[in-house]
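Possible regression after last week's pipeline update?

I re-ran a chain I had predicted before the update to compare outputs. Posting the input and the new output here so someone can diff against the archived version. Not blocking, just want to make sure nothing changed silently.
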Amino acid sequence: MTTQHETDQLITAAHAAFELSKDVTPRVRSDWLEGTAAGLEAEADELVGLAMQDTHLDEGRLRGELKRSVFQLRLFAQEILRGEHLGATVDHEDPDWGMGPRPDIRRLNIPIGVVGVFGASNFPFAFSVMGGDTASALAAGCAVVHKIHDGHRALGLRTGEIVTRALKSAGAPAGLFSTVTGREAAETLVEHPLVKAIGFTGSTAGGRALFDRAAARPEPIPFYGELGSINPVFVTEQAWNQRRDQILSAYAGSFTVGMGQFCTKPGLLFAPAFDAEEVGALLQHELRSHQSSPMLSSRLREGFGQALASVQGSEGVGVLVAGDDAEAPQPTVLTTTGDVIRQRPELLEQEMFGPATLMVQYEPGTRLADFAALLEGQLTATVHAEPGEDLTDLVTALRARSGRLLWNGWPTGVTVTYAQQHGGPYPATTAPGMTSVGTAAIGRFLRPVAYQSFPAAQLPPPLMDDNPWGITRRVDGQWVPAAREARS
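New output (post-update):
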């Protein structure tokens, strides 16, 4: 395990690397990301093999996840060439400005410094050593010290070696990226004065403890934590009557993918009151082909068992499809009623991180927005409805409580793209205005600075009139697109 002294040295080295690299051109930084992507791609066989040993995930899932990480690095590499993340804005001096003479003022986003990143247990590539938090922090121009998750330590260490070597080969300064392990290193990472932000994906309890530490520092820092989500699904009466079997089939597939260990697993489904025996038989049929496997760690298995027992043991909750207590548990579907939820809304707050879900039966004519109003913050919320239905009140209520809304779909796929939003109100995340997936994630690790009445020679390149980096800018209120090829 990394000691406090060793962690301090790595953070200090990361800060030195940041100082050397914070003002490099977009082309140079883009090449560093491309070099890292190529390094991971070249070692894919070894990394996937290690991941299979460290986790209970199959080869296909792991190769897909590594492909996602490589794609993400290359997407960010192209994104920063356009420079939109820099938010470069130029307002020239204007003596006739509407509220009085305007001075020359120019605004730019700059990288914040060293970022501490905590890897997730359930995604050994996509949310780990070179996952979304690390990739977006490097793209922003920051240095990263990554705390490897104990659930895949060997994989994390080897990935860190490959990334360090790839960055060195691409010309990045030593120390720009490093890894640490263990609790002592984690605490040092959150409290060190040279660390300026934290990215975290994990449990609500663990994330909240670190969030409180970050806020209690003499200089509080941003803590971008993804903590927990139940991801409710609302099925209207019309949708249920038109395509009940189709919905149940897709539901069974969605809540069991990855053994229910996805942060976007639909853990809650509202449906019109139904015949429990008939629906239970349909779900059992759909789940019959599900191949159970051990969960990612014994700790997660224990936590899942406790959460399931708590919900299942609650008054008014029944079992629609019974799972088991095996190391590789069979899926469980629980059921309750809308009346029980009204009396005990805390049932909507209990996440069962594993292959289990709760169906809530509501009476015909029920206003679904009233149930939505009982929910805490969520990463996603889904509506299944038919054409022509007016669900404005429900969608408005869900919009206030979730980061991504889905219509007639399922939330367990989170693509990396420009418009993606992976975040939401607390406790889904600690920063509801941000996303940890997609190109907008880069913005978490930047802060704006304005330059007023500066001589041209003293301006940073993105704010110079001739735009030497060729990036997208807003000049006197008008957007000017990036040059076709960003300059070096």
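Follow-up from reviewer: compared with the archived run. Residues 26 and 81 are 5 Å apart (CA to CA). Marking as no regression found.
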